[in-house]
Fold this protein.
Amino acid sequence: MARVATKVRGLAVTAVGLCLNAWGVASFVGPFVGPTVAVQPLSLATSKSAPCRRPVMMALMSQSQSSTVEDVANEDAGIVQTPSLWMDDILKGNSSAASTAVEMLMEVRGTDAMEKYLGDCLPPESSSFPLWAKLPLSRYSRRARQLRLRRLLELSSPTAPSEDDDEASKQRRLRSALFVLLRSMADNPDFKGVSSMLAMAKKGAKVGNMSAEEMLKRTPDLETPKYEVMASRKDGFEVRRYDKFSVCSVTMNKLKSSGSDGESASKLSNPQLSGATSFGALAGYLFGKNEEQTAMKMTTPVLSEGEGADRKMSFVLPSDYWEKEDEAPTPLSDSAVKVSSMDGCERAVLAFGGFGRKNDVDDKTKKLQEMLAADGEWRAVDDAPVILAQYNDPFTPPWNRRNEVSVLVESRG
């Protein structure tokens, strides 16, 4: 009997220990699985009448509920479907959910509804999150995923164009950055969730002097002018000898607000690229708004030079027209688009990431000029304009973008 009593006591102690252990684990993981799970401490006084609960399993089951089930319930309840309903699935790595959200946004693009939808998806300020959300294990928590999205948006949002920045402008930039991120997540087989994207963003943002390999990784699979690298420097710039190529160009002070230019520009909603009206006029010409109604293939990069009303933007024409630019389609008579040739030349080039904002371009231009002034082999041609080249579409995140500033150079020999 003593032996049996001992075994019974041992089993009872083991059962109580298991219940306490489960409660302790659940108390630890509770914050990480979201606020929907309430963890109650187990009372030893009532353990005979109340069986040991399994809060850990309840927590995991709560988190595993898919938004698809929730959406069906929402539809039955008459709740309007919006992109915000898909956000947590997206942050977990569901690229199909991102595609659904983008489709919803595209249906209301350019309207107040789009701005509201994006605003509803924005996470709060980083300072409002609890300390535990910053821990490595917390990536399994809804709130921690929101915190990582906030950090990602801070890395992705364009810098303020001036020091006089207000809260409305900041929120507008955050909404634009969120739309860019959603576009890059949509139907992307490489998208593994917000944590992995944040790691990539941090790595890309740290790239200083961009290597040739890194430049190629960031370059779209489009036709681009041909060149040969003549010299490469450890401080980041290289000298290239370009072959002849042709461009179509628009100067801001000659751009027409009406006619074909105005119509093309009005159809463009470009959240990141400056000079959107010029971009629209050139895109219209390239995609068939010309006398011959000839649609041409998109190329890269987009070239810009000058400032203000004198700013000129150019698209590279397909190589079919590089030798004989006069064979290119004729711009419409009411358009400011002009076709011209750029002769072969040597240029010093400095590559960098980001959106190519004015402050960044000015900093890189100054750096390039200083490096050329100290170079023993090459020097900048007097009064030669600096050209900005932007290789990526407006919906490429800043840490994956390739920009370059370049200037005509000549040998010191």
The chain is about 40% helix and 15% strand. The first strand starts at residue 227 and ends at 232. Residues 11-79, 265-274 have pLDDT under 50 and may be disordered.
